[in-house]
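Quick one:
INPUT:
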């Protein structure tokens, strides 16, 4: 009897050649199926049932224009570093990197307010720099005489 062993999300899975089935050992119970992917889906479903939804802040936008929006994380995608979120404003869903999610705490809200103020100030400074650059007297061959 050949046994092949592996682990998926911290759960031991064994393959038994005599009955050609994969067996996951979950606590004191087991789950068997002829397909490894079916066993993994079962484990994923178990993990999702126990997942606690959390209100977070999604950090979006680009380098010069950061946006922050309230979201709820509904699940984590395995060990990929990604999760599914639902935007509170329009109820749209998307998969995003977990590092784009911040805890909705008082400290983080204060930091976000500071970031927004600094970005506004930076925008005004860039606009002023652009105006000053535009006001520079430019070279033309006629002014060289």
């Amino acid at each position: 009897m050949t046994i092949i062993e592996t682990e998926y999300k911290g759960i031991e899975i064994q393959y038994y050649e005599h009955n050609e089935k994969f067996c996951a050992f979950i606590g004191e119970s087991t789950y068997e199926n002829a397909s490894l992917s079916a066993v993994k889906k079962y484990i994923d479903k178990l993990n999702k049932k126990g997942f606690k939804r959390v209100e977070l802040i999604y950090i979006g936008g680009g380098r010069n224009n950061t946006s922050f929006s309230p979201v709820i994380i509904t699940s984590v995608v395995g060990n990929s570093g990604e999760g599914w979120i639902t935007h509170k404003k329009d109820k749209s869903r998307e998969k995003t990197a977990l590092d784009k999610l911040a805890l909705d705490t008082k400290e983080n809200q204060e930091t976000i307010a500071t970031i927004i103020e600094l970005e506004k100030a930076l925008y005004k400074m860039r606009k002023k720099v652009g105006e000053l650059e535009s006001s520079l007297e430019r070279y033309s061959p006629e002014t060289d005489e």
